[in-house]
Amino acid sequence: MSVLSKLGPKLAKGFAATAVAAAMTTAAFAEPVNIRIQSVISATADEVTMLKDFAADVAALTSDDPVTIEVLPAGAVVGVKEVLDAVDKGLVEGGFAWTHYWSGKHPAAALFGSPPAGGGIGMDNIAFLSWFQFGGGKELYDQLWTEMGVNVKGFMLQPVGPEALGWFKEPIQSMADFRKYRFRTPPGIPGQAYKDIGVASVAMGGGDILPALEKGTIDAAEWCCPKPDSVFGFQKVLKHYYLQGLHQVVVNADMYINGDVYNAMTDHQKKAIEVAANASLSKAMSYRIYENGKALKKLVEEDGVILHDTPADYFPAYMNAAKALLEKNAAENAFFKTVYDSQKEFAAIAVPFWAGAQASNAALGKAYADELAKK
Predict the structure, then answer these.
(1) Cα–Cα distance between 167 and 162 in angstroms, integer?
(2) Rounded alpha-carbon distances, angstroms, from residue 58 to 42, 51, 268, 275, 297
């Protein structure tokens, strides 16, 4: 028999009513939280569309104790490279970028944002998500910010991959052709791997790529995938497109909230953000498949883009360079090694199953794609 039952029905009912009223009062007086999130890309980018969808989910889940997220475009408060520092200092409550943008603060950021060539251990974006959610990755991700010495709480939101090799003025038949071009790459280990195989790698933010192509500062570029690439307008300048790339088989965009802002939230507000973030992980992948399919069809059929297969000698060259860099960083940095060892332990268990299971899916899809190409 419960304590309330012993008190008698009338008194028990009174206690229950008081508890409900107290809970309602707490909710009613919970402080609204307003979070300005500065993105590192323009307001027209697909990633911002998905970020606003995440913000809408958070708002719906916190109607009683509101958390309002306002998405600001690149440069609204600080420059692209200063976003994380601005969140850390409280100049803006939140930020949105890709984890590997902060590789200069800690090399392990690349293992969360874009482990090149699948980390050299066969991980695709779905296997990575399994590691992140159930293989210890999230706990290490939380530790990453402490290792960097920044006062932020991070949330992984948008996994994607594999990214396209990129856009070129002319067809490339081999690595010898590839090495002729000044090529925009991501920062950190993915870009360094290109340098190590003799490609003139130039790191720059997304909003700077098209102007650089138009001015001739660079000759070729990668960004992401058909939809985001077409939104940026690369097809206006370059017409030769290569889908198969290794530099970002896995790539993840994430959000950062100032630690003091986050810690001041109620448990319910924190849980709402966590739930919305988990939903975003799935929704982002689903959104990308259909949107990229539609974009690729338009690029080829309406915009005059020519789709090519990536030269065969690219794959071993890049894979070997990426793996060497990962092993080098693991030897030089203890936390990097901790994260990389965790990924390798996960991959040893999960990748043989996942790769085998996916082989039939890939063959099935390729057969259908080939059939469509004949029509």
Answers:
(1) 15
(2) 22, 11, 11, 8, 33
pTM equals 0.85
Rounded to an integer, what distance in angstroms lies between the CA atom of residue 203 and that of residue 191? Answer: 7
d(CA 8, CA 191): 71
Q: What distance in Å separates the CA atoms of residue 325 and residue 192, rounded to the nearest whole number?
A: 8
Give backbone dihedrals phi and psi of 72, rounded to 5 degrees, phi first: -105, 145
> What is the pLDDT tens value at each position of the chain, 375 positions in all?
444 444 454 444 443 444 444 444 444 456 899 999 999 988 888 899 999 999 999 999 999 999 999 999 999 999 999 999 999 999 999 999 999 999 999 999 999 998 999 998 999 999 999 999 999 999 999 999 999 999 999 999 999 888 999 999 999 999 999 999 999 998 788 899 999 999 999 998 788 899 999 999 999 999 999 999 998 899 999 999 999 999 999 999 999 999 999 999 999 999 999 999 999 999 999 999 999 999 999 999 999 999 999 999 999 999 999 999 999 999 999 999 999 999 999 999 999 999 999 888 888 888 888 888 887
Could you give the CA distance from residue 254 to residue 238 in angstroms, rounded to a whole number? Answer: 29
Long-range contacts of 362-371 (CB under 8 A, 24+ apart): none
Residue-by-residue DSSP string for 280-344: HHHHHHHHHHHHHHHHHHHHHHTS--EEEPPPTTHHHHHHHHHHHHHHHHHHH-HHHHHHHHHHH
Phi/psi at 210 (nearest 5 deg)?
Answer: -60, -45
Q: How many CB atoms lie within 10 A of CB 66?
A: 15
For the record, the structure tokens of 66 come out as 């509101």
Contacts (Cβ under 8 Å, ≥6 apart) of 105 = 84, 148, 149, 150
Please state, in angstroms and rounded to a whole number, the distance separating the CA atoms of residues 83 and 92: 8
Q: Which residues 6+ apart lie within 8 Å of 8 measured at CB?
A: none
Half-sphere exposure of 65 toward its Cβ, with a 13 Å CA cutoff?
Answer: 19
